[in-house]
Amino acid sequence: MILALHDFWSANGCLILQPYDMRMGAGTFHPATTLRALGPEPWNAAFVQPCRRPTDGRYGENPNRLQHYYQYQVILKPSPSDLQELYLRSLEVIGIDSLKHDIRFVEDDWESPTLGAWGLGWEVWCDGMEVTQFTYFQQMGGYDCKPVAGELTYGLERLAMYIQGVDNVYDLDFNGRGVSYGDVFLENEKQMSTWNFEVADTDALFDLFRKAVAECQNCLDAKLPIPAYEQAIEASHMFNLLQARGVISVQERASYMGQVRDLARGSCEAYMAKNADAWAEKFPEWSA
Amino acid sequence: MTDFLLELRCEEIPARMQKGARADLEKLFRAQMEASGVALSDVTVWSTPRRLALVAKGLPQQTQAVSEEAKGPPEGAPDQAIDGFCRKNGVTRDQLELRDVKGRATWFAVIERPGKAVSDVLAEAIPAIIRSFPWPKSMRWGAASLSTESLRWVRPLSGIVAILGDQLVECEIDGVTSGFATLGHRFHHSGPITIGGADDYAEKLRACHVIVDHAEREALIRTGAGKAAADAGLTLVEDEGLVVENAGLTEWPVPLLGRFEEDFLEVPPETIQLTARVNQKYFVCEQGGQLANAFICTANIDAADGGAAIVDGNRKVLAARLSDARFFWDVDRKKTLAEHAKGLERITFHEKLGTVADKVERVANLAEWLASEGIVPDCDPALARQAAELCKADLVTEMVGEFPELQGLMGGYYARAEGSPDAVADAIRDHYKPVGQSDDVPTAPVTVAVALADKLDTLGSFFAIDQRPTGSKDPFALRRAAISAILLLVENRIKVNLRAVLARSTSAIITPKSIKNFDFENFETDADRANNLIEKVEHRLLEVGDEALDFFADRLKVQQREAGVRHDLIDAVFALGGEDDLVRLLDRVHALQAFMGTEDGTNLLAGYKRAANILKKEDWRGIEGEIAHTGEEDPLALVDNPDMKAVVEAKMALRHAKALSYEPEPAEKALIAALDNAEPKARIAVEAEDFSAAMAALASLRAPIDAFFEDVTVNDENQDKRASRLNLLDRFRTAVQRVADFSRIEG
Q1: How far B15 CA sits from the closest chain A CA (Å)?
Q2: Residue B564's pLDDT band (boundaries 50, 70, 90)?
Q3: What is the average pLDDT value for chain B, to the nearest integer?
Q4: For residue B8, what are the domain limits?
Q5: Does residue B343 form part of some domain?
Q6: Each residue of B468-499: pLDDT tens digit?
Q7: Minimal Cα distance from B159: which residue of A?
Q8: Is the model's pTM score more than 0.80?
Q9: CA-to-CA distance for B231 and A144, rounded, in angstroms?
Q10: Are residues B104 and B135 in the same domain?
């Protein structure tokens, strides 16, 4: 399935990238999405990104909730006029017949307060199941997207369950030769859920959060937006782990999210500042 | 005469926005045409997820030629002024005409505006409509979005069809040009469709699996879902909101019925219905009044397999949702509601009003007090306290976390499941009610006590910290809380002095501790300090209580107006002042309303107005040496000192008893007799709160006052007669005024 999507999007002008080697909550955090959504330069890329959402862990007992899963992410900037048609063709490529299955674009606007980002779009339904998030980014890091990028986020496990007709993610056939998703990931889910919810050393996590915040600032002072952004990703994940451990109260939550947002925004700001002159020279109609 | 078709095609428009978009399209189109002088009659608007369409029938080919005149400066005005006038009107100086205006020669411009081709008008109007379209949320897209000035639309705009008669209306906006071609159904038809004009538009689309008329799709879903249910031996649970939403999500709606596992029916039916409706937009069905294990989804295609795969896919999604709901139901019941309630200590209600647990404690005290004081009759104070203490506990359950709409309802289920008395479970379930004017008003005593205490606490405590609604801002929904409290009091006929109850509810917030800037140094002894502090607290309580009461009065007026009571009648009763028992107040309003519907009522009002006018015209201030009239209408209304009131009334009585110095005319005598009879009757009736009887007493004045005006000259030359008769009218006015302030009544 991944190979079919790679072939399809590669044929349609996308760079095929690899997953980012950091723990993050969604493919949108990948710098190839977040940072590249800024600025006037065209950018078309597709990649798989493993996502970690500690609070979604269910010790391997829920048929479709996982603390670690995969997203297939496509970003096209500027958004092409036939983006919906391209997307629907990509569903055909992985085996979904749109005259047999009910494909629908249902309003779902996307907002990430921690990235200072929002966009309008839909969740795409296949027979009532959300299989893709489809978004036209309007702002990123607090900046207007000029031009707007289209982002597609496919839920790979969900689509695979759909295509294979299985009700439980762990029953997915991984290779067509007897290895299931459960064989690969069930033990991982059990152990990681236990660590996320019960074992992780919260003092160490708080410490790592503070260190990431400090290091991000250090990078920003040195005018290095990319390493700064990595620290923002790190801080965000530490925050998610602390949430899973249940040690952040409702009141504190807003303050931690605010800190992460400031890091992400600061990184975007630095990224813009570093590139603005070159962009303005290349794209005279563009301005920050 | 010719017809016009406009179709604006774009990527999927959110279902909830389509109704507003249709109205806006028609409004903008009408405004544009009106501005250009194009007469419109029949305009129809349609929507699907992918298009907004408008058909205007019978447009002219040309707009009317109009001749306009503009008046300019007088002859001999400076050249600058005349040139400016010419520029403004687009004429040259030799086109001006001199005319006589009140004896002065003045320049006039006559501007001929020739008729314009309607197609040109439309070509300009379409881009203007698109640019000014008021979408609730709009976006930029594509290469043009390099600039933030690029076109905004709800989702990317992809095509425009604009045809007048059979001619293309040529226009272009941000690279989208008008044409004859549109698209059919996303999956059932590929390639463009050429539209001939307004006549064949809907039918050509239908041939390509698009029903463009939203009302027709709604009807298809309504009847289709009903039939699918009936075919399975079930009854559809009708839901018009879902009909409209599904029509907004489909161009070719096909309702399909599926089943879910029967085991799921063990969770409360409301949770199933809610998850089906909110998350999946499915209808549910009933059998014998009970929720059935069936759902109806609305597909957007005529699937090759008759929808089997679609139903199966939807069944799986619903099963996953329902297993979540069952998981929440099981997990939540592992703790008692009392244990859940402890979690409320972690939730801030308002930074100045503490946590939700603090609020619950206040509500419990108030509910218990309302019961033990008998304000809510036949209510066991212990049950009221118990229900109040648990009423917010479900806010921290998993189920309500997932479905906030189920607040209250789930608490009721959990309370019943753990064996609480029905009165307590019902009170927890219904204590948010009534939500809005048309909602059911609880009547069970424990529920009424908790519901009332909840609203009064919200109102009292926010008023106590000076957080009251201003203008359109009402962040804590205090207006709704007041309406809700009013309905609870009025519908249950709870007679209570609201002032005292509000003081009770604010006293939990306004305490000696809450008094700021209290200068302890100013007092010599602790006792002085304490007394002074208590005085300050009491003063503040009264102040806040009065503000809250005024707020209630305003809401009551609004609520009664919405319930169809004439606002002038409400004002007439409110103007009497001092009333804080809403039941009594409304009884009086309703009696007045009934009275004003009778002939006696309208005639008495006419008599009252006539009397008041004469008194006003004569500037009647009472017989000399009497208590001065302080107000325009009622001399006694402003004498609010109770000691003084008795004195005034004694004096007035004496005055009325004074023998007249002349022989009164028969009609005069009859009015005096009628007043002697009606005055005490009305007074006693008002005291006994029998307002119909009070009105009836007033009605007996109608014939005598009419006869008096007919037969008696008020402004007699004899000063004694004049004074007595004016005094008599004054007495009449006062008697009427005691029942209601008739000066506020219109008519």
Answers
A1: 8
A2: confident
A3: 89
A4: 2-62+117-207
A5: no
A6: 888 878 888 899 999 999 999 999 999 888 88
A7: A81
A8: no
A9: 53
A10: no
- Most B-contacting residue of A86, A104, A108 (CB-CB within 10 A), to test interface: A104
Q: How far is A14 from chain B (nearest CA, A)?
A: 16
Nearest to B297 among A99, A128, A150 (CB): A128
The Cα A285–Cα A280 span in angstroms is 8
ipTM of this predicted structure: 0.93
Close Cβ partners of A186 (under 8 Å, ≥ 6 residues apart)? A60, A170
Contact map slice: B 257-276 vs A, CB within 8 A = none
Out of B142, B146, B301, closest to residue A102 by CB? B301
* CA-closest candidate to residue B735, choices B642, B653, B670: B653
pLDDT of residue A172: 96
A106, A129, A150 ranked by CB distance to B249: nearest = A106
More confident call, B265 vs B69: B265
Mark which residues 36-95 of A lie under 8 Å from B by CB.
40, 63-64, 78-81, 84, 88
In this structure, the answer to whether residues B492 and B470 fall within a common structural domain is: yes
Q: Report the relative pairing of strands A110-112 and B43-48 from DSSP bridges.
A: unpaired
Look at residues B186, B207, B228 and tell me which one is the last residue of a structural domain. Answer: B207
Q: Is residue B346 part of a domain?
A: no
pLDDT for residue B349: 84
B72 & B49 share domain = no
A144 touches chain B (CB under 8 A): yes
Return the minimum-mean-pLDDT range out of A17-26, A256-265, B624-633: B624-633
Q: Does B357 touch chain A (CB under 8 A)?
A: no
Q: Cα angle vertex B87, ends B83, B91, to 5°?
A: 95
* Total number of domains constituting chain B: 5
Tallying the residues shown for chain B, one arrives at: 747
CATH number (domain holding residue B458)? 1.10.3210
Measured between beta carbons, which residues in chain B are less than 8 angstroms from residue A43? none
Segment B248-272, tens digit of pLDDT? 999 999 999 999 999 999 999 999 9
Residue of chain B with shortest Cα separation from A76: B142
Q: Indicate the Cα dihedral angle A182, A184, A189, A192, nearest 10°.
A: 170
Shortest Cα distance, chain B CAs vs residue A217, angstroms = 30
pLDDT tens digit sequence for B498-508: 888 888 888 87
Cβ-Cβ contacts under 8 Å for B689 (sequence gap 6 or more): B584, B587
Contact A105 B12 (CB under 8 A): yes
Helix, strand, or coil (residue B616): helix
Q: Which of B147, B155, B314 sits opposite A127 (nearest CB)?
A: B314
Within a 10 A sphere around the Cβ of B352, how many other Cβ atoms?
A: 13
Q: Do B309 and A40 touch (CB under 8 A)?
A: no
Residue at which a domain ends, from B45, B78, B113: B113
* Residue of B430 and B662 predicted with greater confidence: B430
pLDDT of residue B636: 47
Q: How many residues does chain A have?
A: 288
Residue B344 lies in a domain: no
- State chain A's mean pLDDT as an integer: 93
